[in-house]
Amino acid sequence: MKFKKLLLGAHVSIAGGLDKAFARAEDVGCTAMQIFTKNASQWQAKPLGNLEVEAFSNAWSVSVIGPVIAHDSYLINLATPEDAAWEKSKAAFLDEMERCAALGIPQLVMHPGAHVGSGKAMGIERVISAFEDIFIRAPKGVKILLENTAGQGTCLGNSFEDLAAIMAPFPARSFGVCFDTCHAFAAGYDISSMQGYETVMEEFDKVVGIKAIELFHVNDCKKSLGSRVDRHEHIGKGAIGVEGFRTLMQDKRFRKIPKILETPKGEDNEFDRKNLELLRTLAGED
């Protein structure tokens, strides 16, 4: 069966070939997964060959993994005021979209970027301008998922208003949101209790629209509420705690929305197994 009750997974290594990610994801009990489509620490990557694309497609077709989501390289910064870096980032992001299109991956997660001292308003303006250029050449069928951030340093995206401002000039089909629980908590959105969670989601709905959420990164937070420090912790072991994740996992609005772990994996991915098991228990899955 292609889709099980819950679409739960983790970010999975592509070492040895993109197609190898499916077996790794299945081994820890995933029904969805997130990958990089290239080495995330390098700007350049050789183009995808036909055999590589075919192997990925074949592995996906026989896998229990349903949704596959890609995450772009952390090197990319579409908010930078430095022109050479901005042009390099635009080219790299377009390449990420083209790789997703070739592989049949319909969603690409990205961080809005850092303004590097130019100010939030200018940073958002640069991101919008970058996408105006990118979408002219972008392949069809790949939606961008803007990820909320902790707001560490000069990073944009720690407020829901940042996300809304970036998305506003473009058709709704261009963007969705990847809601990262750790980042939201570190940015000051208290989702650690049912009441707090409901308040935060109500605010998100007013500012962005709840239907924009197409993916969750489910990570607990090592640091305190509003710390603006991005440090992921195992589910229930951080400052968000079990109740916050129980509320999310039992929110019927997001039952069919994939939820992806980005927590430390441990030896032989033991913590992915434990975290996924806990999330299923919190959801009340049999």
Briefly summarize what is shown.
It is built from 9 helices and 10 strands. The chain has 286 residues and is of the alpha/beta class. The two termini are 17 Å apart.
> How much of the residues is beta strand, in percent?
5-15%
**Average predicted confidence as pLDDT:** 96
Strand order in the largest sheet: 1-2-3-4-5-6-7-10
Summarize the helix and strand pattern as letters.
EHEHEHEHEHEHHEEEHEH
Largest sheet data: 8 strands, parallel, barrel
Radius of gyration: 18 Å
Low-confidence stretches: none
The global form is globular
Number of helices: 9
Number of E strands: 10
N-to-C terminal Cα separation, in Å? Answer: 17 Å
Computed structural class: alpha/beta
Determine the fraction of residues in helical runs and give it as a percent range. 25-40%
How would you describe the overall organization of this protein?
- It is built from nine helices and ten strands.
- The strands form two sheets. An eight-stranded parallel beta barrel has the order 1-2-3-4-5-6-7-10.
- α3 crosses α4 and α4 runs parallel beside α5.
- The radius of gyration is 18 Å and the shape is globular.
- It starts with 7 loop residues before the first strand and ends with a helix.
